[in-house]
Design a protein that fits this description.
Pdz3 Domain, 2 domains, about 400 residues, PDZ_6, transmembrane, alpha+beta
Length: about 400
């Protein structure tokens, strides 16, 4: 018996890792890194982070929120139909294949899968797969409560990721201003893989693993089903710095998730409120992206060329520039007492005293400060700075 239980657990783990969402997510994350490196090298002839950074962080940043989500969803008893999970997975794969991560918010997947099931009921009610019938899914019953609440929880997780983990990996690139000059903008395109354990009524897992953990409530059996979900994010910042824009955006997404949970909770008494909650979630998430995009396009560039010195667009990790505490948007006015106005003058001034570098820097707030750093032979010859040129 114990050997059979172990085999069932191994089968379930294998099914999870063979899920197409998991496999496509790995390929998509590698692609994200490849295109980011290509864009950075086109602008600065050097990449900011290694090309596999996105792939390495695919699950590293999300396992703890995934654990919390699993405990909340399964602990509260929010059940979903297996067909909804299948549609969510299919929509996730479609989003990753297109690389259009503006559409990869979990509220879009949750709502489209929900209304997709309703469309199947209306236009293909006789459709059946292994005994499953569209009419078996009660979209005006428990699903009207559980799907909006789950979507709200996933929105809160998305807001957390956007607030905490997008600004540090925003990728700078050079683009032309209206005056034909070259300024820096910052693009954050991220993908998180969030493995969540769902409660599914029926013997969904028993067909693959007869000894997979189940429990019975009344006359209904429930299975714990691990499903890899993806959360994607894509946004360009140019009128604001990433470390100022993205945390605010993440906070707005998180509060939208709270609103969705509150409205969805009313579906316990008024099921149609669950439908309304999903529509509000989709429209609200779209409005957050649209408002931010319009504001950033209309505003000027925060990292534009200045006559006073050389503007920083990015800093290589573990470089002298990072040790100095420099940040994108600051302007280097002079190096070793020599005024600089372009990248070549910056490099020449550094070579005046290759062992000890003294900088006069204009901060984002306009205040001037003096900084100095000892340079070693293995350090980057331009302090590890990506500059607007």
């Amino acid at each position: 018996m114990s050997e059979q239980v172990v085999m069932d657990l191994l089968k379930a783990v294998a099914l999870f890792f063979l899920n197409p969402v998991w496999l496509v997510a790995i390929v998509a994350a590698v692609g994200l890194g490849y295109f980011r490196v290509k864009r950075e090298r086109r602008s600065f002839h050097v990449r900011l982070h290694p090309g596999l950074t996105e792939m390495k962080r695919l699950l590293a940043e999300s396992w703890m929120p995934a654990l919390v989500l699993s405990v909340l969803i399964s602990g509260i008893g929010l059940t979903v139909d297996a067909s909804w999970l299948v549609l969510v997975s299919a929509l996730s794969i479609l989003s990753m294949i297109t690389f259009y991560y503006q559409s990869a918010s979990p509220v879009y997947f949750a709502a489209l899968a929900f209304f997709g099931l309703y469309a199947i009921q209306q236009f293909a009610g006789d459709f059946t797969v292994r005994g499953w019938l569209p009419g078996d899914v009660d979209l005006f019953g428990e699903m009207a409560l559980t799907v909006p609440v789950i979507a709200g929880l996933l929105l809160i997780a998305e807001g957390f990721f956007v607030r905490k983990q997008t600004a540090d990996y925003a990728s700078p690139f050079l683009t032309k201003t209206n005056r034909g000059l070259r300024a820096a903008a910052f693009k954050s395109k991220r993908l998180w893989l969030v493995p969540v354990v769902f409660l599914v009524p029926g013997d969904f897992m028993s067909a693959f693993a007869p000894y997979w953990p189940q429990f019975t409530l009344g006359a209904t059996a429930f299975s714990f089903v691990p499903v890899p979900l993806i959360i994607g994010f894509s946004q360009v910042a140019r009128a604001s710095f990433p470390d100022m824009l993205f945390p605010k955006m993440g906070q707005a997404i998180g509060w939208l998730g709270v609103l969705l949970i509150v409205i969805g909770g009313i579906a316990w008494w008024v099921p149609i409120m669950g439908w309304i909650a999903l529509i509000i979630g989709v429209v609200g998430r779209m409005m957050i992206s649209i408002i931010v995009a319009v504001k950033e396009r209309k505003g000027g560039f925060v990292a534009a060329p200045q006559t006073a010195g050389v503007v920083i667009a990015g800093i290589l990790p573990e470089s002298p520039g990072e040790k100095l505490g420099l940040v994108p948007g600051e302007c280097i006015k002079s190096v070793n007492g020599i005024q600089v106005s372009n990248e070549k003058e910056l490099y020449d001034a550094i070579q005046v005293n290759a062992a000890h570098c003294r900088l006069q820097v204009i901060g984002r707030d306009g205040e001037v400060r003096l900084m100095q750093q000892v340079l070693f032979r293995h350090d980057h010859h331009r302090l590890g700075l990506l500059v607007v040129r």
